[in-house]
Amino acid sequence: MGTLRLVLGDQLSESLASLREVDAKQDLILICEVMQEATYVKHHKKKIAFLFSAMRHFGEELRERGLRVRYVKLDDAENTGSLEGEVGRAVRELEPERLVLTEPGEYRVLEMFRGWERKFGLPVEILGDSRFLCSISAFRKWAHGKKQLRMEFFYREMRKRYDLLMEPDGKPVGGEWNYDKQNRKPPRAGMHSPNRIGHARSGITTEVLALVERRFGDHFGVLEPFQFAVTRDEALKEMRHFIAKLLPAFGDYQDAMVMGEAYLYHSLLSCYLNAGLLLPLEVCESAQAAYRLGEAPLNAVEGFIRQILGWREFVRGIYWTHMPSYAELNFFEAKRPLPEFYWSGKTRMVCLAEAVKHTQQHAYSHHIQRLMVTGNFALLAGLDPAEVCEWYLLVYADAYEWVELPNTLGMALFGDGGIMGSKPYAASGKYIHRMSNYCQQCSYDPGVTVGEGACPFNSLYWDFMARNEGKLRGNQRMPYVFSTWEKMGPGQQKAIRERAETVLENMKKGLL
Ligand code: FAD
Ligand code: DLZ
Ligand code: SF4
Question: Is the CB of 363 under 6 A from ligand 3?
Answer without folding.
Answer: no
